[in-house]
Design a protein that fits this description.
mainly alpha, three-stranded antiparallel beta sheet, 54% helix, DUF6502
Amino acid sequence: MSTPTVPPEHTALLGAVQAVLRPLAELLVARGLPYAQAEERLKAAYVQAARDAALRATPEALPHRLVSRLSTATGINRREVGRLLAEPDASSGLRPSMALRVFERWRTDPDYLNGRGQPQILRRQGVAPSFEALAAQVSRDVHPRSVLDDMVRLKLVEWEADADTVTLRQSAFVPDADTAKLMAYLGANVGDHLSAAVENVGGLQPRHFEQAIWADGLTLDLARELRAIIEAQWKLLSQALVPEIQRRIDGIEAAGLTPDARVRVGVYMYSQQDDGRPAAQDQEGKPHA
């Protein structure tokens, strides 16, 4: 039996997917989001995209047949498709990461709180109360040292090597309003940019405006200097565009028309050093002002 060949278009598409997923995966790992939660979101998006396409093609499709069609289109089994259609946000019920579970246990378990109700400073090893015992109470599937290393990476705890003690950082994993806004901007801006690119590749007419300039052979200082030029050009564009958009919105309202569309216009710049680090980092990996 011959092995089915992968269509060249799928090979190219998977290359594009890898390029898109890599920075997203870096963000998820940096923020401690478990793979299972990201996988659930991807499966739900797959099913929703297939559902929208199927209903556009056959609006009168019967529900039981729709599940089979979505399973065939996505490769996800029928039971999972049915679950995702019934519970589109089922990811909220998934278990948090091991690091977050230990964090929450430490913050709330009376055995690990002091007389003021604050998390104790724990010995790294030994009988309870110790970090080793705490991690084992949450799960024995992961070695306590691996849990500690991950919590240090996520800045959830501080490990004092000389005293071999671990201190909980209580403010960790409590996002402030600015962080929530940044995540919302990320989803909205990148989501719309990716939607424009996907629809352009799909041949939608008229095409969305999508242009970019790429250059290498630069010095790190020049890459940084280009930001000032781009910021100045963006200021000019926004100063001209925002009043014009508002003038047209006012015209729609004055005419008594019903708005039925939206638009997002943006400019971005990304620069990278030859070793793969962002140009905004210095030699020690610290952000550059």
